[in-house]
Give the backbone structure.
Amino acid sequence: MSLAATYGAYRHLMAWQWRDRAKLRELQTAKLRELIHTASEHVPYYRDLLKRVGVSAHDIVGPEELGYLPVTTKAMLQACPPEALLDERRDVNDLLPHRSSGSTGQPFTVFYDEQFRSVRDALFLRALETAGYRLGRKLMLVTTTRRNERPWSRPRWRYVSIEAPPEELREVFLGFAPHVLYGCVTPLRLLAEELSARGGGFRPLRGVVATAETLDSDTRRRLGDVFGCPVFDIYGMIEMGVVGWECPERGGYHIAEDTTIVEPAPLGDDGRHRLVMTNLDLHAMPFLRYETGDIGVFDEGPPCTCGRMFSRLKRVEGRLVDCVRLPDGRGLGSGRRPRRRPRHRRERRGGRDRDGRPTGPGAGAEVPCRRMPARRRHGDLRCPRRRRPRSRSGAHAPSSGSPRRPRAHPPIHESRSWRTSPTTPRDGSSPRPSS
Ligand SMILES: [Zn+2]
């Protein structure tokens, strides 16, 4: 993967965050139709799924029709042979595997194609840009990402394992002198404590970017004080890349709607939603209506003053984290320092069952799937609506058939948080309420 491809994708995404929502909807629709065509023709899992529910690729003409597909969970995908999840035309040796473990202990591998590798990195760069990072500046990453994954980033990026003890984090930090620091919350906090305790001169950073774990206000303040810069949070996952990131206003996470469709599935009446996502750019291994297991609260207020057109999440709960855990089972979430090199274990936080579904009131219900109207069941969208005979006065005669049948389930797209139409004018006026 070349820097040119990544930079091209980056410039593309940087422009899209300022486009209006009508353009954004056109982009989502175009990407979705191409993705659905690939999945229904060439990916056995989705080919069988669409056939089973009687939906054809031609029925999915835009984001609203996504609701005709059932939701897929990680447990469902884990139960399939890996080849059933991949585009049959692809050679698996040409794809980049990303393995994620889970609460079930079963490995789950996501395969990236070349295009999504560029998009994934471009999404990351776009999120870093708001924290003061520019290509050419020095970035220190405390993460599990393999350092050979982005050869173009050498030597300006320095990777350090999240398993590194605080002493090593401090040594690398002082020696490398990064402009921006990125990593999981726990090792960043350990580094900040180590620097405070042992000292060491360094210039203030341009920004700190946290990820993977919940960033509480105390930790945010502490990191800002030690590193002398604003602190930002990123919400992402292996299956989607960066889904949301904080802008300088830090009023929630802007959703990367140019690459991901996020559907809110109501969890109760307290404004929390299960987050169901479709990755619009990963074609080798599609994720359509994928229930992430995360819970989010959407911001339905006026548009962000930064001018970005993307919808926002106020907060995300139940994130999958790579949590530092001591050999005796104690977590490091309380800010305690390890006495020896900690062992790390993948851990889920935030009330989810073994299948990765959220637990709690209302969480056991299935995410609804829309019923395909009878007139569209055979996928013939070009079939014109049957005209009713006109009366002599020119008015339509009443239908002779039975009254229109109500929908079995409200589509989750039409819940009050879902906005695909232009609702966020640049002039700062209140968005048009969605239906
Ligand atoms: Zn903003």
In short: The radius of gyration is 23 Å. The chain is about 25% helix and 20% strand. The chain has one domain: 3-377+407-414.
